[in-house]
Design goal:
about 40% helix; globular; single chain
């Protein structure tokens, strides 16, 4: 079993949509997946038709002194989703400083990994280096750092270190953009942690969130959905820790 984190090098690179799409692709390969929202923005739930007004989640439960396990949703036989939970700004601060609760959740991740109940735990993490983000990121066996081929991400790749066992996943490559192609070619030569799989700009990536479905469920024939299946198969070979 593996814990795989996805984290954008900055906001707005599509990390949450990619995390939902990868989880869907893995479960289509008969892999059992637990997808956890590690962001206080609590947006991951919207890709799985969880009602906007629903406030529950693991963070909300821990803040309220309840069992976080009860906050999980069974989406398919192979895919479970654990939202973060809705909370005010003051409550976010309170949770981030609640070291006992957060350490307990981190220990729970280790226990879940040891239990073998899922082949994958996927963490959708916000960008940045907040204490909660660091705590969850430390549990990951590998981290996919999501980037777009633009000048902003290019600069950040040169001034922000990758996390341990970090890999660069290129999202939103637009065919016909000379600037993006130039940056991509430069990364091929200079970024040794760049994954051999990339995701092209695809309108279905934006549409699937509006439809409240992960990409592969909404448009399995889309180019980006096929690329997510390629990423899922590649992850099985390189990240699962299973021989053969």
């Amino acid at each position: 079993m593996a814990i795989l984190a996805l984290q954008g090098i900055r906001g707005g690179v599509g990390t949450t949509t990619v995390a939902a799409a990868l989880a869907w692709a893995l479960q289509m390969l008969d892999e059992k997946v637990l997808l956890i929202d590690g962001s206080p923005d609590n947006l991951l739930r919207l890709s799985f038709n969880i009602d906007f007004a629903h406030r529950g989640g693991w963070g909300r439960a821990m803040l309220d002194g309840e069992d976080w396990r009860s906050a999980a949703w069974r989406y398919t036989h192979h895919l479970d989703v654990l939202p973060f939970g809705q909370m005010s700004d003051d409550e976010r601060v309170a949770l981030s400083t609640h070291s006992t609760a957060l350490n307990a959740f981190r220990q729970s991740l280790d226990a879940l990994k040891a239990s073998g109940g899922w082949q994958w735990i996927i963490l959708d993490l916000p960008h940045g280096n907040a204490p909660l983000t660091r705590l969850l990121g430390e549990a990951a066996d590998h981290t996919l750092v999501v980037v777009r081929p633009d000048a902003n991400c290019h600069v950040r790749l040169h001034q922000q270190p990758l996390p341990p066992n970090g890999h660069i996943l290129l999202n939103y490559l637009r065919v016909g953009s000379q600037l993006q192609d130039d940056i991509f070619q430069l990364w091929l030569q200079s970024q040794r942690h760049l994954l051999p799989i990339l995701i092209h700009r695809d309108e279905s990536m934006a549409e699937c969130l509006a439809a409240k479905q992960p990409l592969g469920e909404y448009r399995p024939d889309a180019l980006a959905a096929e690329e997510m299946m390629t990423l899922a198969n590649w992850s099985l070979l390189h990240f699962s820790g299973r021989a053969g």
